[in-house]
Design goal:
2 helices; 80 residues; four-stranded mixed sheet
């Protein structure tokens, strides 16, 4: 998937007023296994650290724009 095509990707995970929870991380990990790339959005009044979300989910942070981030699955045995 090219960088330009992330714009066409629809968010499949929404972070609400409770912020990033364990259930949310589990869902991100599940979707990464299925889709390889996941787009996440969050509410304006919610504090989210995209780098921390990627680290906790075991993913690679590809892009952050406004209140949207794109994560890619971390491939085993590959240095990303």
């Amino acid at each position: 998937m090219s960088r330009g095509s992330f714009q066409d990707l629809r968010p499949t995970v929404w972070i609400g007023k409770r912020g990033v929870t364990g259930v949310m991380i589990d869902e991100i990990q599940r979707q990464l296994k299925d889709r390889k790339v996941v787009k996440v959005r969050w509410l304006r009044n919610t504090e989210v650290d995209p780098v921390e979300v990627a680290d906790v989910a075991g993913a690679i942070l590809v892009e952050v724009r406004g209140r949207t981030l794109v994560l890619r699955e971390r491939r085993v045995g590959r240095q990303d």
